[in-house]
Amino acid sequence: MRKEDCFYLGKIVSKYSFKGEILVKLDTDEPEVYENMESVFVNLSGDNLVPFFIKNCRLHKSALLRIDFEDINDESGADRIMGTKLYLPLEFLPKLSGTKFYFHEVIGFELLDSVHGNIGTITAVNDNTSQALFEVLKGDTELLIPINDDIITKVDRENKTIHVTTPEGLVSLYLGDTI
Fold this sequence. Notes:
The chain is mainly beta. It is built from two helices and twelve strands, in the order E-E-E-E-E-H-E-E-E-E-E-E-E-H.
């Protein structure tokens, strides 16, 4: 399985028992969705994703997932995969509606502002800051637009557009009088 065809589920953060069980810190708002998985892909090196089959899988203290893999039966086996990232195929993502979206799905969407009209194409999402940001390209100019429920008014998947009402002066800060 290729990494591009998958989404990041979480990271193995610790061992749970001497029998090889591990704990995974999930990157999700709904951990219960992943409670009864049969398998995951483990990123062992580079972009190589290897399927691992699950004997038992359950939530542990709400945000952690306790997994007992079929082929890992002791601590040394668990040590070999410690700190690795887990992935699932994109088709396992729950469908979102309304103004909710996955960051990867909106790359290439046009950003339409209620005052300024088309302010560019989303080229990336920067979620390494305290506030996630759309990275938007308008000609040669890059705009950084906050991703916030108060700003996003509509997500139109069919037309690949996101409608926003940006804070006053933000778009002008980047584009000046060219809008």
